[in-house]
Write a structure and sequence with these properties.
Layout lengths: L5 H13 L3 E5 L13 H19 L5 E4 L2 H4 L2 E2 L4 E2 H16 L6 E6 L3 H14 L4 E4 L5 H13 L3 E7 L6 H4 L9 H16 L2 E5 L4 H12 L5 E3 L9 H11 L6 E5 L1 H4 L1 H4 L8 H16 L4
Parallel strand pairs: 1-2, 1-10, 5-6, 6-7, 7-8, 8-9, 9-10
Antiparallel strand pairs: 3-4
Helix pairs in contact: 2-4, 2-13, 5-6, 9-10
Amino acid sequence: MSGVSDYIRLLESAAGQSCSIACMGIDPVAEGLPSPSHSFSSRVLEFFEPVFEQMLKEKVLPGAFKPNIGYFHVFDAPFEERFEGSLALSKVIQLIRQHFPNIPLILDMKRGDIARSSQNYAQEAFSVWKGDAVTIFPYMGSDSVGPFIEAAAENGGGVYVLNRTSNPGGRELQNIICNDSRPLYSHVADKVIEWNRAKANVGAVVGATSPEELKELAALYGSHSVPLLIPGVGGQGGSAQQTVKLLKESGYPLALARVNSSSSLTHPWVKKKSPLPKDWPVQVVENLRILNQELAYEQ
């Protein structure tokens, strides 16, 4: 196929509208939320609703949102018939859709299975949670990735394949040298490009904490219009300014990139072991403003 998919158009449009390629990770932790005596879902809503309203008020927007499902489901207690985590996730997604209807919602689910199981996971991402994109594992190949690509295409969305991740242990497998003297992540990149040809909706996750690999892969992906999701900026030690510099040097189209930061944007006081500030919406928006400036995206 090749060409421009609905998801590519969404990324480009959102970057233009928000003047940002930042991705705001939504990873709520109990220590960073107000009203400790309230339910988790109420606390999440109490935290994010004024944050989103402040973002609109100051016209400081990200280029995408990325809720991490693992930060929500841990607060479910199914044997006690309580689903506070799932309820909190639904409330956050509804707020995002209400306030920012044209900005991509990337579900960080890291799913991957085969056959009907993969189809079910894909349905969970796009039909149940109504995401615009989802992160997935490539380890089981086309049998696993294919159902996600099809479901994404049916819903005008995209998928991000884990390629060269930001965690220190990523190199234990991803940098294994294969028989042709190329690392495994390079072979995964070849498959991402191949998968992207069919629907033009397949992207890659490449961490900011591996700058050499990021520059290499961005140069490769740029000519194929493969979207990039780049975690690792902020709390994991990656630099926003270095990241955007590498993307520009590699000739990558910036509108297709989303550079993620999570805790450094929404609750940096937790790492500092400081209490929740009274003006947290103002502080979160200021953190996002600084990240947008560091990424320096211009149409």
